[in-house]
Write a structure and sequence with these properties.
By secondary structure, this protein is of the alpha/beta class. It has a single domain, classed as NAD(P)-binding Rossmann-like Domain (Rossmann fold, 3-Layer(aba) Sandwich), CATH 3.40.50.720. The chain is 46% helix and 13% strand. The chain is built from 13 helices and nine strands. The chain has a seven-stranded parallel beta sheet, sandwiched between helices. The protein has a two-stranded parallel sheet with strand order 7-9. Strand 2, helix 2 and strand 3 form a beta-alpha-beta unit. The radius of gyration is 23 Å and the shape is globular.
């Protein structure tokens, strides 16, 4: 299948590309900066320079494509707003795909987006779901809620470095999932007719609360975490302040997502139907424990190797010292 992957350089998008190539698909990647996508070309994908916010670049990118997997989203550091990328850009992409006669369209939303109309990203995702459903395309909507990859920077690295781990009040549990596993569902959707015009949750084996993740990291690293609690009211105040400045719009919209985490409602869902329809084995899904175990095993081994090399270098330096006194 000729597949266009949008957002191909992102945490999830690159895994979609890797999986699609492994499954034998011809993959084209829509990227804003080709220099940041050289690794995709080395994997065997075609690089096509374009941008969701430049509608004129989309029809050429879609030429000859039979399917689209859209893994793009705005980033807090982007100069573009959530509305420009996640709404205006997605509308242009969906319309262009329909005009191009694309046979399958896979879109990543967020779990429970319909429950948070006051959170900009969630509401935009919900509206995009509705727009896609009315577009006439044979779509599949996948709804993850968090990536295991994000936990490394949020928990593992601060604990290893002796830095504070920031948490917001009594944060809701989240059923994080490995992006490699999410990618399997996205690529599999292209081949399973039963997934057409349907929406599925794609979440991990269970919801994890922040303190559970911290305790796991402490056990695996052998280090105690420094925990800093960030009051929700403070985040709300910061959001109101940065909202006054254009450069802060994206940050403010992202801060609104803390309302989801502080809702007290776990981000989780049953995956029974999803596994059944997609024909995938739940036993092959990476658990958070296994993911963290593998990470800490690698990093602790690397740290030991670094310490060994440093001690070896010190001993050799002492032997070579011209100032060494004779006994």
């Amino acid at each position: 299948m000729n597949l266009l992957v949008v957002g191909a350089t992102g945490t999830l998008g690159r895994q979609v590309v890797r999986r699609a190539l492994d499954e034998g698909h011809q993959v084209r990647c829509l990227v804003r900066n080709p220099r940041k996508a050289t690794f995709l070309k080395e994997w065997g994908a075609e690089i096509f320079q374009g941008d969701l916010t430049s509608p004129e670049s989309l029809p050429p990118a879609l030429e000859g494509m039979t399917a689209v997997i859209d893994a793009a989203t705005s980033r807090p550091t982007d100069s573009l707003t959530i509305k420009q990328v996640d709404w205006d850009g997605k509308v242009s992409l969906i319309q262009s795909a329909a005009t191009a006669g694309v046979e399958r369209f896979v879109f990543f939303s967020i779990l429970n987006a319909e429950n948070f109309p006051d959170v900009p990203l969630m509401e935009i995702k919900r509206c995009t779901e509705v727009f896609l459903a009315e577009s006439g395309l044979n779509y599949t909507i996948l709804k993850p809620c968090g990536f295991l990859q994000g936990l490394i920077g949020q928990y593992a690295i601060p604990i290893l470095d002796g830095q504070a781990v920031w948490i917001t009040g009594d944060s809701s549990g989240i059923a994080y999932m490995d992006t490699q596993d999410i990618a399997k569902f996205a690529v599999r959707a292209l081949e399973v007719p039963e997934t057409e015009k349907k929406t599925f949750p794609v979440v991990g084996t269970r919801a994890w609360e922040p303190y559970e993740i911290i305790r796991l990291c402490e056990r695996l690293s052998g280090k105690d975490a420094k925990i800093a609690r960030l009051p929700l009211n403070l985040l709300r105040a910061v959001r109101r302040v940065v909202r006054f400045f254009q450069w802060g719009w994206n940050v403010a919209d992202r801060l609104a997502f803390t309302e989801v985490l502080a809702s007290g409602k776990p981000l989780n869902a049953s995956m029974d139907e999803t596994y059944q329809v997609f024909g995938l084995d739940p036993k092959e899904t990476t658990t958070l424990e296994a993911y963290m175990q593998e990470y800490f095993s690698r990093i602790m081994k690397k740290l030991k190797e670094i310490d060994f090399e440093k001690n070896k270098a010190k001993k050799q330096a002492k032997k070579r010292s011209p100032f060494k006194t004779k006994s």
